[in-house]
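Hypothesis: this fold can be encoded by more than one sequence.
Test: take the structure tokens below, design a sequence, compare later.
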């Protein structure tokens, strides 16, 4: 009970749980939208249009748009059944954090939170890297096809974004303030 009264402890718990929940929701939206926009055919009457293939190739796989999208990705070899199972375990964890947050703030966050967060990031990065290597690079007319790109050489936008967040949450003041100081320095020049 005394732990909850420590402002730093409470802030750390809120930040950790909020970061996991936000990252999970962002990942879920990313997966659905990335695949959906693969089937984009344009813009008409104020909204995007999609090919009929989106319905037949993706949405027909399951009643849940999310599950249908994961099954489509699995069929292309992007992910496997274990990855899908991991996602749904991570969703259960997200639900626990969301629905039991007040209780967890008093009792303490589960010890496995950092491990679950890393699993979530790894799954997103796996999909992002596959997407870059198999969709974005081959369909980019400006890309030099003679240049070989290796998965290990790709840094995804989510990797960069999460690194910025982790740096900003660092207890090292220089690291935590680096981005703000750089922006200030570059806008004051």
């Amino acid at each position: 009970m005394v732990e909850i009264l420590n402002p730093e402890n409470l802030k750390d718990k809120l930040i950790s749980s909020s970061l996991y929940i936000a990252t999970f929701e962002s990942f879920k939206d990313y997966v659905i939208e990335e695949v959906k926009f693969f089937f984009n055919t344009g813009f008409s009457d104020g909204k995007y249009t999609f090919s009929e293939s989106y319905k037949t190739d993706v949405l027909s796989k399951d009643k849940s748009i999310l599950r249908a999208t994961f099954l489509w990705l699995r069929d292309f070899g992007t992910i496997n059944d274990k990855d899908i199972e991991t996602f749904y375990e991570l969703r259960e964890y997200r639900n626990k954090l969301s629905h039991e947050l007040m209780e967890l703030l008093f009792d303490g966050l589960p010890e496995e939170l950092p491990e679950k967060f890393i699993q979530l990031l790894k799954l997103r990065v796996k999909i992002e890297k596959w997407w870059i290597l198999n969709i974005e690079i081959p369909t980019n007319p400006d890309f030099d096809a003679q240049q070989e790109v290796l998965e290990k050489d790709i840094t995804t936008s989510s990797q960069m974004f999460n690194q910025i967040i982790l740096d900003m949450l660092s207890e090292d003041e220089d690291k935590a303030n680096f981005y703000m100081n750089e922006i200030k320095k570059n806008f004051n020049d």
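Residues 155-189 form one domain. The longest helix spans residues 7-38.
Hypothesis status: open.
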